[in-house]
């Protein structure tokens, strides 16, 4: 291949990597709530933040639109898209299936250190219930932070313990398409609901520890189904 063609090919490869990194970065910021639902994403501002031209930013936004994360409006720009209740329900259904399979694999493959971490999250969930029971603004802020830590660590550990990287990537992509904190918002800081949520996690952990993959799968799917139903119910109450 002539040198000029090699340079062009390398340039295209670098461009693709750059766009991919921008997609990942923006998805992370949207998923974490830093860029909220309904917010406008300005190409020039993003280009300045990341020290790139507007061309890769424009392509990254197009890819995010294809993923359903943003909507591009002519002469206005890109805006973070709020998923419909149907989108959310379907996403949670798929998530339950994928994480259920991860739990099934984890029951076969989990290591002792990962199992110990799952047990540790049990204490964190108990702390959440305790903070929520106090009911003060500061206590609820602490409960929220602790729940995100416990819930995130638990599910990430199960998925990692599955040993299936492609499954991990698929679940991560699904999570990024949903606003962060939907389940916590639906739980509403209610100690009773938080206790049920903590028990769901404990049952899944015990099934994995007992190497009962099928039970772990069923419990995980049920856990996702309950979260979905609670979110849809709370959405109806707020509409």
From TrEMBL:
Transmembrane spans: none
Cleavable signal peptide: none
Highest rank taxon of the organism: Bacteria
Keyword terms: DNA-binding, Transcription, Transcription regulation
RNA-binding in keyword set: no
InterPro entries xref list: GntR_C, TF_FadR/GntR_C, Tscrpt_reg_HTH_GntR, WH-like_DNA-bd_sf, WH_DNA-bd_sf
Record domain HTH gntR-type: where: 16-83
Keyword match DNA-binding: yes
Coiled coil: none
Protein name as catalogued: GntR family transcriptional regulator
Species per Swiss-Prot/TrEMBL record: Streptomyces cuspidosporus
């Amino acid at each position: 291949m002539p040198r000029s063609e090699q340079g062009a090919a390398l340039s295209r490869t670098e461009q693709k990597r750059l766009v991919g990194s921008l997609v990942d970065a923006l998805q992370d910021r949207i998923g974490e709530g830093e860029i909220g639902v309904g917010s406008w994403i300005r190409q020039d501002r993003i280009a300045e933040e990341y020290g790139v031209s507007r061309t890769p930013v424009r392509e990254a936004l197009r890819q995010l639109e294809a993923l359903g994360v943003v909507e591009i409006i002519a002469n206005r720009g890109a805006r973070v898209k709020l998923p419909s209740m149907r989108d959310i329900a379907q996403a949670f259904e798929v998530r339950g299936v994928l994480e259920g399979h991860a739990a099934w694999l984890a029951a076969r493959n989990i290591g002792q250190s990962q199992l110990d971490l799952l047990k540790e999250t049990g204490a964190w969930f108990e702390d959440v219930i305790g903070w929520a029971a106090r009911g003060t603004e500061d206590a609820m802020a602490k409960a929220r932070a602790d729940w995100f830590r416990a819930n995130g660590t638990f599910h990430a550990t199960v998925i990692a313990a599955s040993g299936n990287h492609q499954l991990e990537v698929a679940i991560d992509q699904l999570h990024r398409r949903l606003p962060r904190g939907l389940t916590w918002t639906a739980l509403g800081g209610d100690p009773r609901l938080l206790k049920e949520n903590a028990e769901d996690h404990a049952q899944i952990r015990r099934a994995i520890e007992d190497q009962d993959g099928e039970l772990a799968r069923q419990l995980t799917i049920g856990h996702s189904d309950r979260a979905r139903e609670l979110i849809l119910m709370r959405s109806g109450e707020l509409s």
